[in-house]
Write a structure and sequence with these properties.
Blueprint lengths: L1 H7 L2 H8 L27 E4 L7 H9 L7 E4 L14 E5 L12 E2 L2 E6 L2 H5 L2 H13 L1 H4 L5
Parallel strand pairs: 1-2, 1-3, 3-5
Antiparallel strand pairs: 4-5
Organism: Zophobihabitans entericus
Protein name: DNA polymerase III subunit psi
Keywords: DNA replication, DNA-directed DNA polymerase, Nucleotidyltransferase, Transferase
Length: 149
């Protein structure tokens, strides 16, 4: 039976198990590889995840419509998501990005509202998608203006 156990785990794992020592797995290994955690200041109300630039007129128009400024927005590259704190109070907007596997296909994660859209240039050309985005933004308005809560 010991041979069967040893075939599924290495000697070190087996010895630690025999000694009753629990092994832990690092949840965020990138944090040990020189990555820096991202700190979200209280004025950040919208977190955008995009590989493309947000320097398009439609983006500024959207911010103006929801009464935010660029100081209220933090844009991250998709690979930076792992550096976010576990808890924060901002809407997460994936622009032309797939949702990570750990993110549900819609709604929120840990009460974290999530929006997913096409690229900004495609969004600018699609009234239907703009309408859908506007409905979602209105649904999350209380996240943008917490002083009204």
């Amino acid at each position: 039976m010991n041979k069967l156990i040893l075939s599924n785990m290495n000697h070190r794992d087996w010895y630690l198990e025999q000694l009753g020592i629990t092994q832990y797995t690092v949840r965020r290994p990138a944090s040990l590889m020189g990555e820096v955690a991202i700190t979200l200041t209280p004025e950040i109300r919208l977190l955008t995840v995009s590989a493309e630039s947000t320097e398009e007129k439609i983006f500024d128009d959207i911010l103006k419509a929801i009464r935010l400024t660029r100081q209220n927005v933090l844009t991250l590259k998709p690979e930076q998501l792992i550096m976010l704190p576990e808890q924060f109070n901002a809407v997460v907007w994936f622009i032309n990005q797939p949702l990570p596997e750990s993110w549900p296909a819609g709604g929120s994660v840990n009460n974290r509202p999530t929006i997913k859209t096409l690229s900004l240039s495609a969004l600018a050309k699609s009234p239907k998608d703009k309408r859908q985005l506007w409905q979602e933004l209105c649904q999350y308005e209380h996240y943008f203006h917490t002083e009204q809560s």
